[in-house]
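Notebook entry, structure prediction.
Reason for the run: the old model in the group folder had no record of what sequence produced it. Starting over properly, with the input documented here first.
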Amino acid sequence: MKNGYKYFFYKMYRFAEKVPSPWWSEWKAAFYLSIIELMFLMSLEGYLLIMYRIDIFKIFFNIPLILVLLGLNYMLFLHNDKWKLYIKELDKQSRRQQLIGGLIVWSLVFLIFANLIFMFYLMSRIDWSLYR
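New structure, fully documented this time:
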C-alpha cells in the first residue's frame, strides 16, 4: 500500500467521525495517530532497556518528543487542509480495497497495543536491582 501513513490517518478520521461528537475529527485523527506512534516508541524504548540496558527516556522521551510527533502529524495532515485531499482520494477506493486497508490498519493498531502490554509484562519480570 503506497499511501500507508495517509491510510492510517484516513481510518482514524473515519473512526473519529463515528464517535458521538464528530466535530474536529481531523484533529482527533491526528491526535490518535500521535498516540499510536507514542505507544510504538514506548514499546521500542522498553525493549532497548530490557535487552541493552539503554534508557532513552532520559535522552529522548519527554515533552519535546510529544510535541515533535504532534507537529509532524500537523504538518503532514492538517496544515493547508491536506487531510481533505487525502479523504477525497481514499474515498474513491473500492469497498474491497477499503476493507483490506481497514483490516491492515486496525491489525497494526492492535499489534502495537498488544506489543506495549507485552513489553510492560517483560519489564515486570526484570530484577531491577541489576540495572541500578
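Summary: Residues 95-124 form the longest helix (30 residues).
The old model has been moved to the deprecated folder.
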